[in-house]
Every structure is written in C-alpha cells, then in structure tokens.
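Worked example

This section walks through a single chain of length 131. The input is the sequence exactly as stored; nothing has been trimmed or padded.
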Amino acid sequence: MDHSNATEGARALVKRFYEGAARGDITSFADSLAENFELFVPPQLPWGGTFDKGQYVDLMPRVAEALDFTDMKYVSVTAEAQHVVALIDIAVRGSDDRIMISEHWDVVDGKAVRLLVAYFDPTPLLRQAAA
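Given that input, the structure is written out below as tokens.
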C-alpha cells in the first residue's frame, strides 16, 4: 500500500469509530482493533490508565455514560501515513459543558494498534465523577 492509500485508510478507520459512537454503537469498532491494541488515558480520569483490546471494549460504554458522542464535532482530523490525530469537541452528559479531546491513533495493516487520549481540560469530567 502506498503512502497516500495508507493515510486515507487510517483516516477512514478512525472516522468509522466516531461514526459508530455517534449512532450509539460504541463497541462496534472492536473488529477494527488489533489483538495487541493498547489504550492510554490520563490517570486522573475515572477511567484512566493503560488498557488492552478487551479492556478498551469493556470501558467504552462507561466513557459514553460521561461523554455524549451524538453531540461531538470534529475540530480537525489529521493523518500522516498510519498516524491519525482527531481533535474533537464533545458534550459532557448531564451538563452544559463541552471538552476538547485530542486522540492519537496508530493504524497498522488496517487495524488500530494504539490510542493515546489527551484531554485539554478534564475539569467537567472530574466534577461529574465527584458528584
């Protein structure tokens, strides 16, 4: 696969995740994860830590209880070869708050192998968890 095809394939795979989440099908993406998939989430969040594929799939409904993926907007989606960065603006459920999240995906052979999630300001989520 040439460079531009790898880039577009990686971008399409990541967008498929968000499209499923927006439909409320947060775990439909599981077949697009490599068996050695790793997730990294800031440890201060209620669902923070490092997770494997199975743990990620189990975790996503909990994340969707806090974040409203049906009210998500792309700020940008940047792809270079097999790395995709999605900067999203998303509503926090049960509040008027929104947060910015930068998600860094690595895709190999058509499967996501790594996701590093960076929250710009997780204060609304931390307030929600403390309530």
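What to look for: The radius of gyration is 14 Å.
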